[in-house]
């Protein structure tokens, strides 16, 4: 008799563990509960939320985890050993989930879209956020999510009072038990690791590799320096440090990186080959300098030494796990989370390059990868 409740059962061919599906199979594994984790976007936040997976498995022992997300966030979840299946938010993906029943839904997104999607899915318990049917307002699904919800409604709380990281707030909102500061989970394939080693060998030239991420999402475009700012920083680094600089980014940074690198000792990584290829470039680096962006989260997930600068966003929401340095803009209006700004000078013009170089040096000379240093405003 086929064991349809087995974690490996698919219903149309042998699972790959045994040619015959039966109670006698040594790989038989029946989950105690089925969990749906809903986190559609943004990309950096999706990657950060992989830090919740160990806590989910501690609370829901021997559970089956399905993650619902948007494209291309699904690429960041590939090969993740703690996720049983990734479903893309699409017409076919939602059809796949319709009619299924989950014991628990963990909805991280404070969005009407994610809450609307749940109307098509059967489940017993919901943690995180939901939408009030009559008003359409996003509200906590349980009392545990109240703190995260209230922080989002108050600039005073978000900018100045909150001292918890975003992942701790999400952990508590989902009622996952004691917070143990679990790290991100990101898995590279053997082929990807091989590519990263090849790039490291090609780029290194006998020096530690410093990746400078020039990219960020268009939502808040001020999480990157100006072209002139990057060029000035690279000149200072080349004058003071013995490192090989490689410019990182996505497709929209291709022309920008060419302009930045012109006449300077800086290499350019491929930027048009997708997210997984970008991970290979970051894996090839020893140190990564970045604004609060997907590139920063990738570097954190790959356990690189990260020198992260913060202007419009909140530094306290990010955990570098003792492997990096935070540099805060000297702009008095930071943080602000503004999508549009025309101040002169801008917050990215007021980042201390001396502090950036000090943060890089802390990795090069002290070899201090167990302690996070917060470089504060003067």
In one word, what is the shape?
A: globular
Strand content: 15-25%
CATH architecture of the largest domain: 3-Layer(aba) Sandwich
Compute the gyration radius: what is it?
A: 22 Å
Mean pLDDT: 92
Determine the CATH topology of the largest domain.
Rossmann fold
Keywords:
alpha/beta, Rossmann fold, 14 helices, 13 strands, 32% helix, globular, disordered C terminus
Task: Tell me about this structure.
The chain is an alpha/beta fold and 378 residues long. The protein folds into 2 domains: 141 residues, Rossmann fold (3-Layer(aba) Sandwich); 186 residues, Rossmann fold (3-Layer(aba) Sandwich), CATH 3.40.50. The chain contains 14 helices and 13 strands. It has a 7-stranded parallel β-sheet, with helices on both faces. Helix 13 links the parallel strand 10 and strand 11. It is globular and about 70 Å long. The termini are far apart. The C terminus is likely disordered.
Offer a concise description of the structure.
By secondary structure, the protein is α/β, with parallel strands linked by helices. The protein has helices at 43-48, 53-59, 73-76, 91-97, 112-118, 146-153, 155-161, 166-173, 190-204, 227-240, 254-261, 275-283, 294-301, 353-364; strands at residues 33-38, 63-69, 85-88, 101-107, 122-131, 138-140, 209-213, 244-248, 267-268, 287-291, 305-310, 324-328, 373-375.
List the helices and strands and how they pair.
Blueprint: E1 33-38, H1 43-48, H2 53-59, E2 63-69, H3 73-76, E3 85-88, H4 91-97, E4 101-107, H5 112-118, E5 122-131, E6 138-140, H6 146-153, H7 155-161, H8 166-173, H9 190-204, E7 209-213, H10 227-240, E8 244-248, H11 254-261, E9 267-268, H12 275-283, E10 287-291, H13 294-301, E11 305-310, E12 324-328, H14 353-364, E13 373-375
Parallel strand pairs: 1-2, 1-4, 2-3, 4-5, 7-8, 7-10, 8-9, 10-11, 11-12, 12-13
Antiparallel strand pairs: 5-6
Helix pairs in contact: 6-7, 9-12, 10-11
């Amino acid at each position: 008799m086929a064991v349809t409740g087995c974690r490996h059962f698919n219903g149309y061919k042998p699972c790959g563990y045994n040619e015959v599906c039966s109670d006698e199979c040594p790989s038989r594994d029946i989950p105690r509960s089925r969990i749906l984790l809903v986190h559609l976007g943004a990309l950096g936040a999706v990657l950060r939320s992989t830090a919740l997976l160990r806590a989910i498995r501690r609370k829901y022992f021997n559970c089956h985890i399905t993650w619902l997300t948007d494209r291309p966030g699904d690429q960041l979840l590939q090969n993740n050993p703690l996720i049983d299946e990734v479903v893309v938010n699409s017409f076919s993906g939602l059809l796949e989930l319709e009619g299924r029943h989950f014991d628990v839904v963990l909805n991280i997104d404070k969005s009407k879209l994610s809450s609307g999607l749940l109307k098509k899915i059967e489940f017993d318990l919901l943690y995180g956020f939901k939408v009030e049917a009559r008003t359409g307002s996003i509200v906590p699904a349980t009392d545990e999510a109240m703190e995260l919800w209230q922080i989002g409604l108050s600039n005073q709380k978000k900018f100045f009072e909150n001292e918890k990281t975003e992942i701790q707030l999400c952990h508590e909102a989902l009622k996952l038990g004691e917070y143990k500061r679990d790290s991100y989970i990101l898995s590279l394939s053997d082929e990807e690791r091989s590519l990263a080693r090849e790039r490291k060998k090609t780029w290194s030239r006998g020096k530690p590799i410093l990746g400078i991420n020039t990219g960020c999402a268009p939502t808040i475009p001020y999480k990157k320096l100006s072209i002139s700012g990057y060029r000035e920083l690279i000149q200072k680094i080349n004058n003071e440090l013995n490192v090989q600089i490689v410019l990182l980014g996505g497709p929209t940074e291709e022309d920008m990186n060419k302009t930045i690198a012109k006449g300077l000792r800086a290499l350019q990584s491929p930027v048009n080959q997708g997210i997984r290829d970008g991970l290979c470039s970051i894996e090839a680096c020893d140190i990564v300098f970045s604004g609060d962006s997907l590139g920063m989260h990738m570097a954190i997930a790959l356990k690189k030494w990260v020198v992260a600068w913060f202007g419009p966003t909140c530094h306290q929401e990010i955990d570098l796990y003792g492997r990096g340095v935070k540099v805060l803009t000297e702009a008095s209006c930071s943080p602000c989370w503004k999508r549009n700004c025309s101040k002169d000078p801008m917050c990215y013009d007021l980042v201390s390059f001396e502090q950036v170089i000090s943060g890089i040096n802390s990795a090069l000379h002290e070899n201090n990868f167990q302690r996070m240093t917060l470089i504060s405003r003067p």
